[in-house]
Write a structure and sequence with these properties.
289 residues; alpha/beta; Indigoidine synthase fold; 12 strands; Indigdn_synthA-like; PsuG
Length: 289
């Protein structure tokens, strides 16, 4: 029985500081294997799509300078020019589905960015487009806390993406156990998730089943702790007139600076936990096939 789990690689090259990035990548792959599934970290090396990386390739991705962050629009550029790239949720999901891998694990998904200078937010992550188009199972800890969570939840609904709360009734927000926003349905077991996924397939619905898992209790950060630090980070970003691609890494870095090691611990723990949940779902799906 083959039960592959796709893992994104942007978190290795861009999301976590060294040496935690490599250690976390190894831990996530080990966690998937321990559950009887097959980890498949996806990246592009010298223009070649890699569906699963050797240990030395993981190390290269974690340590080499100039690794490009690759979303959907970037895929043909990186492949055609023979570059190295770490794939985002959207790009990972696209490549995984093309390779016949229906289950993916990540940390937090992208969504609708918060408004800056009172202007409507025009920056909407390609993750939402990929989720609306590709009928896979994506395990995450909800949208990143830096986003406009209400607008992101509305976009998920508008695009027909079923949001599952895995052992929770509210959608988590990355480091935080809850966003205060509801999910569409609660599932407490991998079998329940697979039943929902099969129902979507029988109905011919496009788009993903988004399984949201709160971070482990031992490391989860309350919203009342994160939000003041986030507001200050947003003010800093406005002062620097940051937009688009520069905004997300800046805000996440600012949160790490203001909240210290708690943010890093939460990020690492939720990535490993999501890999475990995804592996269990992948095994249940393979058994049900």
């Amino acid at each position: 029985m083959d039960a592959p789990v796709a893992l994104e690689s942007t978190v290795i090259a861009h999301g976590l500081p060294a040496p935690h990035n490599l250690d976390t990548a190894r831990r996530c792959e080990a966690a998937v294997r321990a559950e009887g599934a097959r980890p498949c970290t996806i990246a592009i090396l010298k223009g070649q799509v890699r569906l699963g990386l050797h240990p030395d390739e993981l190390r290269y991705l974690a340590t080499a300078p100039g690794i490009r962050k690759v979303s959907l629009r970037d895929l043909p550029v990186v492949v055609a020019r023979g570059l190295d790239g770490a794939t985002t949720v959207a790009a990972t999901l696209h490549l995984a589905w093309r390779a016949g891998i229906p289950v993916m694990a990540t940390g937090g998904i992208g969504g609708v960015h918060r408004r800056i200078d009172g202007q409507p937010a025009m920056d909407i992550s390609a993750d939402l487009e990929a989720l609306a188009r590709i009928p896979a199972i994506v395990v995450c800890s909800g949208p990143k806390i830096i986003l406009d969570l209400e607008a992101t939840r509305e976009q998920l609904e508008t695009r027909g993406i079923t949001v599952v709360g895995y052992r929770t009734d509210t959608m988590p927000a990355f480091y935080c156990p809850t966003s205060g926003l509801p999910v569409d349905v609660r599932c407490d077991t991998p079998a329940e998730v697979v039943a929902l996924y099969r129902a979507r397939q029988r109905l011919g619905l496009p788009g993903a089943l988004l399984v949201t898992v709160p971070p482990p209790d031992r490391v989860a950060l309350p919203r009342e702790v994160v939000l003041p630090a986030l507001e200050q980070a947003l003010q800093d970003a406005e002062t620097r007139q940051l937009r688009a691609e520069a905004l997300t890494p800046f805000l996440l870095a600012r949160l790490r600076e203001r909240l210290g090691s708690r943010v890093l611990q939460a990020n690492i723990a939720l990535l490993e936990q999501n890999a475990i949940v995804a592996a269990r779902i992948a095994r249940a799906l393979a058994t049900a096939t």
